[in-house]
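Backbone shapes recur. Consider a single case.
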Amino acid sequence: MVSTASYEARRFGVRSAMPMAQARRLCPNAAYLVPRFQLYRTVSEQVMELLGRLSPLVEPLSLDEAFVDLEAGGVAFESVGAREAGERLRRDIRAVTGLSGSVGLAGSKMLAKIASEEAKPDGLVLIEPGTERELLAPMSVRILPGVGPATGEHLRRAGMTTVADLVEAGEDELVRLLGKSHGASLHRMATGYDDRPVVAERDAKSVSVEDTFDVDLHDRLRITMEVGRLADRCVQRLRASGHSGRTIVLKVRRYDFSTLTRSETLRGPTDDPGVVREAAARLLDAVDTTGGVRLLGVGVSGLADFTQEDLFAQAAGEQVVEEPLGPGDEEAAPVAEAEAPAPEDPAQRRWLAGHDVRHAEYGPGWVQGSGVGRVTVRFETPTAKEPGRVRTFRVDDPDLAAAEPLALVEPAGAECGEGGGAEAVREGEAGAAAGQDSPLASRPKSRSEGGGPGSGAAMSRP
């Protein structure tokens, strides 16, 4: 599935949540990138730190958006102060990360979210108090939280397509159509009323990781290995959050886009990678992957802040019974030598589109695509002014190696290296498509979403 798409690709009809096969048909010359979530998290932490300087009340919604209560931070009590804080935030985001940010300012979370949408891709929109109803009236009912495709269609059949239609219908009619809770809530929001507070802390309910593959996986051994790798990554994230969990969840999206979820609950919470790997493998055994798999995911839920030792050896071979040594046995006791890891076969190296590499001769670049034993690399840096040169190599080229992402902000006094670069970078464009009309499908420009609370700002980074 497409996670997000650049503005260039959207002109060809590519949209978020679209099947990747459909996106490739609509925009065949785009660059399709594999997510680099570790980098996204790093940049997200930098932005969230900037938001924390504005207010103690910051409510993250995702990696790239959050609500901020500016009034609680004492940085804005009226429109002028809020605008100044928003512009300062946008400058700071650019200086620290090299990315653009969109800021929406309003008296409620709902309105600030709408304002941030209007501010994209790189701007600031402030909704003045007293103008809310006038602003909302001509908008589609789908702009309101809680109105999805099904509710929107139900309202359309009742003759309500704009927010003004909802206000005119009145609360009683909406309650009749949608039920007491939903109808009353929707009427309040249609009149511009949203009293939801900014919540700074939210307890995590689960930890999970997943990967979408460029080509459907058919090899059962390869699928099993991928599940094991995802289980290890999930446990790393679980431990980093200071949690353990009882329920292991496996997610499989098959070739026909049908999605299966299987789970197993253990006797007690664990953060043992072996236990999670084996549970995920057992769940995979019950899933038919004959037709191919395009997405795999492993998660842990039922979180706790402690672990329970597995007295019954949930992981096979976990327990080792030690017999006391007799006289003279110490010398005879065999000592097992650790096996050296098998060297990686260069011909089997995976080059994921969008990931960073370095070539001994051409320097830093990023993978534009790979297949049939070849990998195509564009050699450019985030701060270069022009698209870089493209070269194709064998996947086992000894001069080509994976590399850490380059800094998005050029150090003071540094000059751009050779090979030019696209104006925008890839952050936020997980699984996205670059514009067909950009030269040689250069890196897609990014975008993100945000919204913010009363006297609050909604931030987003590309």
Observations:
- The chain has a mean pLDDT of 79.
